[in-house]
Write a structure and sequence with these properties.
90 residues; mainly alpha; 5 helices
């Protein structure tokens, strides 16, 4: 258990990044939604999180409007890639 705690502490940013999709999945489960619906909600919340994180990172870095648009496009591209992987693998 000590190794797991150390790994979670070291990679805390990854744990924080997964919080919103996990929360969405748990809330869907609590609401009685089917598993497929819960997974879809978690997937879309992941995509929205990626876009939002890129937007906030650009704002925090005081990016110019063009740079900010590029940051958001990068987040959207990552989200589309995740969605394509789900489509291909499902």
């Amino acid at each position: 258990m000590g190794a797991l705690a150390r790994a979670l502490a070291r990679d805390w940013a990854i744990v924080r990044g997964a919080t919103l999709p996990l929360l969405a999945l748990v809330l869907a489960w609590v609401a009685g939604a089917p598993l497929v619906t819960g997974v879809s909600i978690a997937l879309w919340s992941t995509i929205a999180s990626l876009i939002a994180f890129e937007l906030f990172a650009g704002i925090r870095a005081h990016a110019a409007p063009g740079e900010l648009a590029f940051e958001v496009c990068v987040g959207a591209a990552m989200g589309v890639a995740i969605l394509l992987l789900k489509i291909i693998l499902h």
